[in-house]
Amino acid sequence: MCGNSGSLKTRRAPAALLAVLPILGLLLAAACGREEGQGPASRVAGLVQAKLRGRPVLRVEKSEFVNADFRAYLEATGADAKGLPAESLSRLFDRFVDEKILLEAARERGIVLSEDEKKESLARLAVDAIAASEPGSSETAPPKGIFDRLLVEKYTFLVVRDTRVDGGEVLAYYEQHKRDFLLQERVQVSQILVDTEEKAVSVLRRLERTGEPEFRAIALEESRGPESSKKGVMGVFQPGDLPVDMERVIFALDEGRTSQVVESAYGFHIFRLDRKFPPALQTESEAAPEIQKRIMAQKMKDVLAAHLGGLKDTLSWQVLSENLFFTYQRLDE
After folding, report:
1. Rounded distance, CA 14 to CA 319, Å?
2. Contacts from 278-282 at CB under 8 Å and sequence distance 24+?
3. Contact 279, 183 (CB under 8 A)
4. Angle 313-319-320 (CA atoms, 0-180°, nearest 5)?
5. Are the C-beta atoms of residues 269 and 261 closer than 8 Å to each other?
6. I need a surface site. Which of 74, 113, 134, 208 has the fewest CB within 10 A?
7. Per-residue pLDDT tens digits for 161-186
8. What's the distance, CA 32 to chain centroid?
9. Half-sphere CA count of 53, side-chain side, radius 13 A
10. How far from each other are the two terminal CA atoms of the chain, in whole angstroms?
11. pLDDT score for 40
12. Which structural domains are found in the chain, ordered by start?
């Protein structure tokens, strides 16, 4: 993170971040994993934490952010501050700084969220919360700063939305990275999935001395797998796509043959190897969608990084790493 640090005058031009005092780092490290009141070091660390609690760790124009704001950011991203090393916390803090600078830029440009955008965001959160919650659990409040992060996402989209990838770029990437598009041996697989071993054995007997049409009919009739409506066809797979125990059975089959009964957590399977595809190189047109995604992702990243660099040169911002609750580590250290 390129930023201003410490208590020096830091208007406009970024400067290197100052390291936190070694004694402070030692005291905070001593407090990790302990409860307050378990010894002198722990009590001193608690006092240090309390002293830092209200001190700013970041200033962007007229806004100030403290450790509590960064902790809320960590919580919203699912990160565990207590379980992360200082290097990981430092990189997350870099992202926190970037987000707050983008937030300030969005506000300066008069970009706002519509009521519909806010409602849609809350609705998505509610659906996710319901899916992740256990029966009987109480409702949880939306994460702190949810609309600020949504505004940053909107602003970021506006910055990168004109990014394009042309055919010449796709062709050049394909020629330079053909190895990425070499396909391993692949197989088309079908299955019949039933609940009990007894049922599976019965189905297996019905399949003896029969061909593909009979397998399709029985799969449609008997299988409870999600692909039963497709007459048992699961799709095309390469090594590593399926659980190891299943792959061991499937890839050992000859084309057009069915397996013995295979038990898994889902039930009892009978697999059919429909077709084998030898290793092959994807054509440019086959690889184009993946190539476009790769190039687009990199170009958008570059556009945003350049834009963010310009904001850091023009906005007034200051990192006060000595006030952080952990020992900040610069990226180049």
Report:
1. 10
2. 278/185, 279/182, 279/183, 279/184, 279/185, 280/182, 280/183, 281/178, 281/181, 281/182, 281/183, 282/181, 282/182, 282/183
3. yes
4. 155
5. yes
6. 134
7. 999 999 999 999 999 999 999 999 99
8. 27
9. 7
10. 12
11. 52
12. 185-278 (3.10.50.40)
